[in-house]
Amino acid sequence: MAQKILDHNGNPVTHGRETVNGVRLHYYTAGEGEPVVLLHGVPKTSYYWRNVLPKLSHKYKVIVPDLRGFGDSARTLTGYDMPNMAEDIAQLMTALGHEKFFLVGEDWGAAVGMALAMQYQDRVKKFVYTEMLLPGFGLEDWSHLTEENVRTNHWIWHINFYNVRDFPELLISGREMLYFSHFIRHECYDPTAVSEEAIAEYVRCYAAPGGLRAMFEVYRATFQDAAFFKTALDNKLKMPVLALGSTYFIGEENTREMKLVAENVEEASLPWGHQLAEECPNELSEILLNFISK
């Protein structure tokens, strides 16, 4: 990781690597206490959580992995369906000696978290589901070009684009800075909240060999993932779940989804855009601490 990340005392976090489930994962960690896992979304990396970690590490052991294919984790050719990516994290936590843990996911990290909570209900103590439309529960609907979707900023056009085999790689390769600086900031309420350093760090990883393909493979497993997530309708999550949305992006859809697949759901909202840890890390951290600690 090119950029330095600091804990609550201003000390550099500890980086590590573990080979689990056929992939070598990079992660960083700080703090002592009960473990809290933070899962990033797309097109981001573990760097996304850099300003949240020091707000949590004074009380918890915070573990922040790069998902399979992202950041400084290995870019495998296959394995980008949500159940398998969730298995990566479950095995990582076992390797680190943690049987039970609190789980926070945003965007596709929330989908990985949902798959992990489904497969390991006894290990996830509480789950925070942030700013994601699950395949099978709304993701496909927002991909449609309709007047209402465009008017309400609910047209997620890239879902269709990324599902075209090979062509997105061809168009974006060599233009990663232009593409991702626009894409990430376009989903913000305050585009200036995402620093040039953050964009450069994300671009460093996605411009690396295999970086773009790994991202697109996540989207290309959408139908497989939808079938998997629909099984939660008959076996709902039992642990406490916080559905956390942003006023200016996915918002209340998070709560609607979670109430379909979980029995014990609380809801919260922040008046920002999609990139909450970039736009409002202090407010986000406060909500996480309040939910996890009670």
From TrEMBL:
<keyword id="KW-0378">Hydrolase</keyword>
<dbReference type="InterPro" id="IPR029058">
    <property type="entry name" value="AB_hydrolase_fold"/>
</dbReference>
<dbReference type="InterPro" id="IPR000639">
    <property type="entry name" value="Epox_hydrolase-like"/>
</dbReference>
<feature type="domain" description="AB hydrolase-1">
    <location>
        <begin position="35"/>
        <end position="141"/>
    </location>
</feature>
<protein>
    <submittedName>
        <fullName>Alpha/beta fold hydrolase</fullName>
    </submittedName>
</protein>
<dbReference type="InterPro" id="IPR000073">
    <property type="entry name" value="AB_hydrolase_1"/>
</dbReference>
<dbReference type="Pfam" id="PF00561">
    <property type="entry name" value="Abhydrolase_1"/>
</dbReference>
<dbReference type="GO" id="GO:0016787">
    <property type="term" value="F:hydrolase activity"/>
</dbReference>
